[in-house]
Amino acid sequence: MNSLRLLGSNLRILVIKYDASSIKLQTLPHMYFGVASQFHTSNICSENTETNLPQQPGKKYKKPVDYLPFQWHRRPMFNIFEQSGDKVKENIVDPSLPKPDFELSDELKDADERVKQYFSCQTASRSEAREALRRQVLKRIQRHPNDFSSLEVKIALNTIQIRGLFNHKERKGKKEVVFSRIVLPILINRRNSMLNHLRKMDYERYCWLLEELDLYLNPPPLGAKNEKYCKKWDLRRLTKEYCKKMVVDKKAAYHEELKKQQAEFLEEKKRILAWIEEEEKALNVK
């Protein structure tokens, strides 16, 4: 008996505390008393509350573009990994190159083939092969042996790092792939900005560097604004183009219609001029 009194008092306190309506009362006993069907408030509140349930607002979908007189498709997203500008997306190291710090050895030049093979990039580690490739590229790009700060050298070193990260992204695990995906776009954008700067400074040097590093770059025309892509502005642009095209088409159609009426107009003009001449002769008007 005491337990029932406590149960009733607790239930009354809960109702007063939460200002529970009939909808909340249906959930309170199950929340606090488990699945005890004898305490379900459907026995307490006999009124049908289904009509009082609040209706959830419908899901807001984006407006369709079926009403437009032209077709519109969203522009495909720019994939910086596929359109990075690298024709070759890996660092290709010549296996016949000697390891770093052994290229100037005179004894290695006269050594046995097995010794040369041991000190070549065939048996080199990844860091040694990358350093050998770096030195080989710098020899081709540098203007002088102490050139390490020119734009060409910076672009070449950046390209080696980018192509190494392409291999790293495909070969390593999940965490390393995430790191490569974060760093690669930063390096690619930095290299593109340096290439654009070199293009403005020395166009011949720029074209030569693209051939040396197997790169391609399609910069926007000079003076063009690189606006952020947006559906609203894209639809406005297409609408303006459609309106201009419609005006041109209507003018062309009207011009063709006037051409067809030109023959009738000339015949009527001849007839009117002949009538004017007859009237002048009849009235003796000069």
TrEMBL record:
* BP terms from Gene Ontology: mitochondrial translation
Family named by the database record = Belongs to the universal ribosomal protein uS15 family.
Q: Gene encoding it?
A: bonsai
Q: Does the keyword tRNA processing apply?
A: no
Compartments, record wording: Mitochondrion
InterPro entries attached to this UniProt entry: Ribosomal_uS15, uS15_NS1_RNA-bd_sf, uS15_ribosomal
Q: Which domain of life is it from?
A: Eukaryota
Protein name listed in UniProt: Small ribosomal subunit protein uS15m
| Stored SMART domains | Ribosomal_S15 (SM01387)
Kindly list the GO CC terms recorded for this protein. Answer: mitochondrial small ribosomal subunit
Keyword check for Kinase? no
**Keywords, ordered alphabetically:** Mitochondrion, Ribonucleoprotein, Ribosomal protein, Transit peptide
Q: Which organism is it from?
A: Caerostris darwini
Molecular function GO terms recorded: RNA binding; structural constituent of ribosome
- Main localization (coarse): mitochondrion
